[in-house]
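Entry 14. Ran structure prediction on the chain below.
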Amino acid sequence: MIAEPDGPEGRLRRFATIWSRAVFPATSTSLTRPEFEELLLPLARRLSEALRARTFEAEEGKAVGAALVSAHCTDPDALGHTLECVDAYLVLYCGGDGSQEDLRIRSARLQHAMAAGFAQALRERTLAEQEAISVAALQAQGVVAQALHATEARFRAVFEGAAIGIGMADLDGNILQVNGALLRMFGINDQTMGGRNVREWTHPDDAPQTWTLYDELVRGEREHYHVEKAFYRPDGTVLWTNLTVSLLRDADGNPQYQLALMEDTTERRLLNLRLRYEATHDALTGLPNRTLFFERLEKALGAGNNQRFGLCYLDLDGFKTINDSLGHAAGDRLLVEVADRLQSCATAPGEMVARLGGDEFVALTTGPDTEREVDELAGRIMNALITPVSIDGRDLTVRGSIGIVEGPAGERGPAEVLRSADITMYRAKSAGGNRFELADPEADARAITRHGLTTALPAALDRNEFFIEYQPLVHLGDGSVRGAEALVRWLHPQHGVLGPDRFIPLAEHTGLIVPLGRWVLEQSVRQARAWRETYGDAVPLRINVNLSPCQLTHPGLVQDTVDILERTGVAPDALCLEVTESALIGADDDLLKPLRRLAEMGVDIALDDFGTGYSNLANLRRLPVSILKLDRSFTQSMQQFPADPVDLKIVEGIVSLAHSLNLAVTVEGVETGAQAEQLRILGCDTAQGWYYARPGPPERLHDLALVDATG
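Output, structure tokens:
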């Protein structure tokens, strides 16, 4: 079956066609262009599969590069055209539906691997040619006189027709003869080359062992050596070569000449440098990227001799707002401007700036006195951000939060240092932003613990690690137990019992609060049914369950509550849902609608932590609440006698207002008998606190209720 032109096979065929047209003019082959296209088609398929493979395999790219050499595509232009074609069309025709950014990165890595495979195959082919030439040269010196003319003719053909540069010199380094390929490499003629000496061709980038190997060869201590060497051309440009030098001996085995074989690797080296730069620098800002930064950081952390390091981790404040309001193009221009400013802040030796991604940048300083230098570096960065950035005629204020980590080298790894800097940066952001903070090991430990708890939360619910304790609600008039507030706990395998303040905010942040809250509600209602089955109507215990703001806005709140009550057979008046005052400040009708429906069913709604949210008391009339729970801050002064008269007046006014609105008043945090008596006198209805009982298992409430029932 023939694939449709727009199908995967058709797109692959189109890529192979483009590739063959680009490379064919630079290929030494007897094939026609269509035949050459058929030769490239399986190579194109290998690149396509490597591009979309689950795991990237660099060997696939290397194999394709080597296959080009096998197909006689050895001209440097053939490799250049191939890499340009792969860069421009591989993702377009073979990328499929994957992430364009990831595919581009993988395409660049494939190009690098192809260049490496091409270079390795070409080197192996060249070495094979070199070996053949060396053998021919050696044989040419030892043939019998009657075959000398024929041998010299064959050697001359190889010498002049070789694609690599060949030169011969005596043991003193005087150049005797060179072929045309070598002259073309240097851009000179035969007359210019005459009279030159090998030792004149030094270069600052020569490896330390280059001339040591040369001296050993001319002394007859080695037969050949191979190095990568640079030469200056007459016009001042640099020629990079793979250089192989062999020793030629006479018939008696004495050293006589030296034979040099040169492969021009200048273009390949420039390509590798370009690929290396692209792999280690950010395309937008030109700054070093995460890869290069980690290399430098790892090197800095591995330094000894009392060296220290300082790291500034910068995140722009409110960058998402700029992107959302002005567009990503404006955001990119802002990032480029910020990068330029940061670059100007880190110009001293041992300092560098990099972009990790998005609006996150890092600045690194190294040396013996980074405690002072890193503070100065952070200050320069903050000062550089003060001036607004003008984009499309708008002056944008740039703010940033910086986390600083400083310390001796050799004690921590790059990942640990960057994590500490990241945590510290978010601490600066949480403190209001536009500031820098120093790393604090204790704060890091707390943040890591929070992260661990956040990660463990989902599995904890599945493993039944949560349990509920109950704190009694006591009627202040007769001291009877009227119910209990359900308080969830987490029995963590490593940290022991955790209170809700340790994990409820994390559950809110992750969204797990909805299934966790549903579980708490169902377990608490089941417990209320158990109490009513035990005591009947003689002790009408009610269960209070807290609702988080996230649960309050969840569309399934009412239905979940109805289902749980019907499934357990508990009447709605046995349930009270507590909502914090802060969650209802400024609440609109849509937010209050679920609470109104629950209240109409008979479920009590309590306004928890009343008095802490600075709400308008007039709003109480529109809220579907039947109970006010006074925050413990109002009753703390009543632990001592006499109580603060101002607090007494405030509580008395709140109680009077609540009762005038037909609202009951519950007080939290009662810890002494004096408090309880004072609150009773003020007219409060119920109370809870350590004076009556700490939160505990349901059996404890059984005992308290039983005492009240039997009196």
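The chain is about 50% helix and 20% strand. Will compare against last week's run tomorrow.
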